[in-house]
From TrEMBL:
Catalytic activity: ATP + H2O = ADP + phosphate + H(+)
InterPro entries associated with the record: DNA_helicase_pif1-like_DEAD (IPR010285), P-loop_NTPase (IPR027417)
Membrane spanning stretches: none
GO biological process: DNA recombination; DNA repair; telomere maintenance
Gene Ontology MF: a single term: ATP binding
UniProt domain DNA helicase Pif1-like DEAD-box helicase: residue ranges: 76-296
Protein known as: ATP-dependent DNA helicase
Family: Belongs to the helicase family.
Signal peptide region: none
UniProt EC number: 5.6.2.3
Record key words, sorted: ATP-binding, DNA damage, DNA recombination, DNA repair, Helicase, Hydrolase, Nucleotide-binding
Length: 361
């Protein structure tokens, strides 16, 4: 459009502007048609935009995906392959399915999800990869947060439904999707999944594979992550309230097939056998804490004793010691990206993060 001699009428300028707005909206699952009294671009300008969401989810290199699929399948362990076969069978059978992939960090959940995506996309099928957090969505091709993809309202009640209307581009995309993978699932309130169930039943009610007896109207949905990690955050609530808000307390859970991954692939790699054994021991200790098997019980609470070799013993300048341990010779490596690639310090609060930052100045 950067042409000095190009002359457009006011009507053409308005149509092209509206088309640009519509293109941006469709990229986020919305449309100008959803806004009352808002003008819509003419048909000759809007041609090609209607399938924007579908094209984005089909824009993959089939040959590269086929190669990735074959490579991943050959390297899967028994648990991963069993989960893969069960889910793919449900997808190919068009009979619906609701699955939860359960496993601690390092058991290959992301590897399984990427393999499932490659299997379907290599055959020109559509997979919607969503996560409960923005950072996790970066691990998946075309990954989106659930709030972005499905328009989850911020305030949820038992009567909440998602604002996805039949016939919209997003509704059409959901109808054509063969599989929906939702990672970091326990982070969100069960009301999110129950509202999605109602939404899908409405959207899919006219589809030939619709089944009112199945969760999500017969769409194959895979949830996953570890319940030892972050549960829904409910301000000023009790432990009972938080537990009751989790997905496994939903009416949907009775329909869920649990697929468990137990082999921690990260624990099989190390510079020495002793290093591998140390990591395995530390990992087991963390899992035992998560399962409530470690610590002295005191009125419903547990006191866990931390191993001395992972403690910072300098009580005067603890952050300085931590920075020196994680980032030795920091100034000498300050411009080396590879130096920072495998190093990080995690903080529970912004106050702690700021203290660490000041220690690194």
């Amino acid at each position: 459009m950067q042409c000095a001699d190009l002359e457009l009428s006011p009507e053409q300028i308005m149509n092209m502007t509206l088309a640009k707005i519509e293109d941006k909206l469709q990229g986020n699952g919305r449309s100008l048609k959803e806004f009352d009294k808002m003008p819509y671009p003419s048909s000759d300008v809007i041609d090609g935009l209607e399938d924007r969401l579908l094209l984005d989810e089909l824009n993959f290199d089939v040959d590269a995906l086929t190669k990735e699929l074959n490579n991943n399948l050959s390297n899967m362990n028994i648990g991963q392959r069993k989960a893969f076969d069960v889910i793919i069978q449900a997808v190919n059978g068009n009979a619906g399915g609701f699955f939860f992939v359960y496993g601690c960090g390092g058991t290959g959940k992301t590897y399984l999800y990427r393999t499932l995506s490659a299997a379907i996309r290599s055959k020109r099928g559509i997979v919607l990869n969503v996560t409960s957090s923005g950072i996790a969505s970066l691990l998946f091709p075309n990954g989106r947060t659930t709030h972005s993809r499905f328009k989850i309202p911020l305030e949820l009640t038992e009567d909440s439904v998602y604002c996805i209307k039949q016939g919209t581009s997003l509704a059409k995309l959901i109808c054509k999707a063969r599989l929906i993978i939702w990672d970091e699932a326990p982070m969100l309130n069960k009301l999110c999944y129950e509202a999605l169930d109602k939404c899908f039943r409405d959207i899919l009610s006219s589809e030939p594979y619709y089944n009112a007896e199945l969760p999500f109207g017969g769409k194959v949905v895979v949830l996953g992550v570890d319940f030892r990690q972050i549960l829904p955050v409910i301000p000023m609530s009790s432990r009972q309230d938080i537990v009751h808000s989790a997905i496994n307390a939903s009416y949907l859970w009775q329909h869920c097939t649990i697929l468990t991954l137990t082999v921690n692939m990260r624990l099989t790699i190390g510079p020495t056998d002793k290093a591998v054994d140390d990591v395995i021991e530390f990992s087991k200790w963390l899992l035992d804490i998560g399962d409530g098997l470690v610590g002295d019980s005191m009125d419903g609470e547990s006191e866990v004793h931390i191993h001395p070799d992972i403690l910072i013993h300098d009580s005067i300048h603890p952050f300085d010691d931590m920075v020196e341990f994680v980032y030795p010779n920091l100034l000498a490596n300050i411009i080396q990206p590879s130096y920072f690639k495998h190093r990080s310090i995690l903080g529970l609060t912004l106050e702690v993060v700021n203290e660490v930052r000041w220690s690194m100045r």
